[in-house]
Automatic annotation (TrEMBL):
GO terms for molecular function: DNA binding. One of its GO terms (biological process) is negative regulation of DNA-templated transcription. Keywords: Coiled coil. Residues 26-53 form a coiled coil. This is Arsenic resistance protein ArsD. Pfam families: ArsD.
């Protein structure tokens, strides 16, 4: 089983796709993650939002350290099977697919 976790800044709800005028980037990311889950049978997708899932940040030492060192501007952080593949930006569907397929080169952390 491949695990993709997206660590995100504090948002009003777990996906940030709420309210009368949701952020277009967050709508695209939510759609890409849903599409990814449909495309890969052995993929588990998790989203950790600082406001709703602070325990996940605190329990994941490497992510906690990155946020402590650089502040919340380092978010979002995308992790695939415990490997940080992106920081400070949301990946497109194609980039996420490459990361899950193992064909992406992880960003330097």
């Amino acid at each position: 089983m491949t695990e993709l976790t997206l660590y995100e800044e504090a948002m009003c709800c777990s996906t940030g796709v709420c309210g009368p005028d949701p952020d277009d980037e967050l709508v695209e990311v939510s759609a890409a993650l849903d599409q990814l889950e449909d495309a890969f049978d052995d993929l588990e997708v998790n989203r950790a939002n600082m406001q709703h899932n602070i325990d996940q940040f605190l329990e994941t030492q490497r992510i906690y350290d990155r946020v402590q060192e650089d502040g919340p501007s380092i978010l979002p952080i995308t992790v695939v099977d415990d490997e940080i593949v992106a920081e400070g930006e949301y990946l497109s569907y194609d980039e996420l697919t490459a990361a899950v397929d193992g064909t992406a080169t992880p960003q330097e952390a």
